[in-house]
Structures are given as C-alpha cells and as structure tokens.
Design a protein that fits this description.
By secondary structure, the protein is an alpha/beta fold. The chain has helices at residues 25-28, 34-50, 78-90, 116-129, 153-160, 172-180, 198-217, and strands spanning 11-17, 21-24, 59-65, 98-100, 103-104, 110-111, 138-142, 165-169. It contains 7 helices and 8 strands; from the N terminus they run ββααβαβββαβαβαα.
Length: 218
C-alpha cells in the first residue's frame, strides 16, 4: 500500500572448490524472485571474467540474505553479494559498521537502485538503536543515486555533523576498498594483481583451486 520502509539485512557467502557455479540459496528454496536471481547471475559473469578469463573458474559459491523469511526480489543486493564473495575468497574481513546497496553489471559498475532514502534511513535508525552514532557508521550507495536522496532532517543533520556517513561509488572496487581498508589491486599486462592486494589474494585462492582440480584430473 502506501507504506514504504528499509531495514538492513546481512549477506553471507561461502566458497569452495567446484565447477564455477554461484548458488542463490533463496532462489533454490523459491524465496527469491527472478530479478534477484538475475543480479546473482550478473555478478557471476563479472566474477568469471575478472580474474582468470582464459579458463573456467574452479569454485562453487553460495549466497544468502540471512534470516530472510518473507522472500526477496530485485537486484539491489548484488553489489553486497559480490563484496561478500570477494571477502571469502581473499580471506579478508570487512567492516560491519557500513551498509551497502546497489546493483552491479558485468563490468563491475555500480548501478542505480530504488528506495534509496528508505534504505539509508533504515540503516541510520538501526545504528541509532545501538546507542550514540560513532561517526564511522554509514551507507555505500551508487553515486548515480545521490541526486535522488531526500532524507529526513535528523539524518541530514547527522551527516552534516560527521556523525553518519554516505559514500557514493561508481565501481564495486571502491566499495571493497571502503570495506577492507586495503588496496584492491589493478591487473598488470601479465594478468596479475599485486600479491598483497585484495584481488591478488582472490587470484591466489582461485589459482590454488584450479591447481587442485587439475591434479585430480591427472
């Protein structure tokens, strides 16, 4: 009806040796709509082409929005889901005082989503419920959504005072850097990333998976 709201949800991912499939758990149990599934397939396409474009990915990944009992639709969580997979592959923890919303395309670009002000305000109130705002809490959102923001005075004032933060991003790598505090890494001419970068650690894991799979086929 006329009611609209937003609230934070936790996204988790697990990865293991496999055949390159990204499993959408909500879709498997018929709680995820087609647009959410499309978002998962799109992030899978970006994942496949980002690290080892000349060979199949030797991984299996599973994704879920934890404790969701009413179903989910839309692709607004796909950027968060990609960050969760990268965190697991790189074995790098991510900050829990930031929320993120936004879809991702197969090039890794952040795309606009709906209901952005409801989502920002939902996170703001969740942070308020934990006590005083810390100044580190905030929301990562697609930069293209920034002109659409119409926030309540209390949220606007908290942002102006530095007690709550918003980060507009154009690519998912910017979000990864905010979540990890680490260099994400750029691919060189040899198809490698800096070893201690986030993407370098991801590539090392995928290379290890590929070597294990190859040894089993010998």
């Amino acid at each position: 009806g006329a009611t609209a709201f937003g609230h934070p949800a936790r996204v988790t991912a697990r990865v293991r040796l496999g055949s390159g499939k990204v499993v959408d758990i909500l879709r498997e149990v018929e709680m995820g709509g087609p647009n959410h599934t499309k978002g998962v397939l799109i992030l899978g396409g970006f994942l496949a082409g980002r690290y080892l474009p000349d060979q199949p990915l030797s991984l299996s990944a599973s994704l879920v929005l934890e404790q969701n009992y009413g179903g989910v639709e839309g692709d607004s969580a796909s950027m968060a889901e990609y960050v969760a997979i990268v965190s697991e592959l790189a074995d790098v923890p991510i900050r829990q005082d930031l929320a993120i919303t936004g879809s991702i395309n197969q090039l890794g670009e952040a795309q606009v989503i709906g209901g952005v002000h409801h989502k920002v305000e939902g996170v703001f109130r969740a942070c308020q419920s934990l006590g005083a705002l810390t100044g580190t809490q905030g929301v990562i959102l697609p930069q293209q959504n920034e002109p659409n923001l119409v926030l309540r005075d209390e949220v606007r004032d908290a942002i102006a005072a530095g007690r709550f933060r918003l980060f507009g991003v154009t690519r998912v790598e910017e979000a990864i850097a905010l979540f990890t505090g680490m260099e994400v890494g750029r691919m060189d001419d040899e198809g490698k990333f800096p070893v201690e970068s986030v993407y370098g650690r991801v590539l090392a894991t995928l290379t290890r998976f590929d070597a294990t799979l190859a040894s089993r086929h010998i």
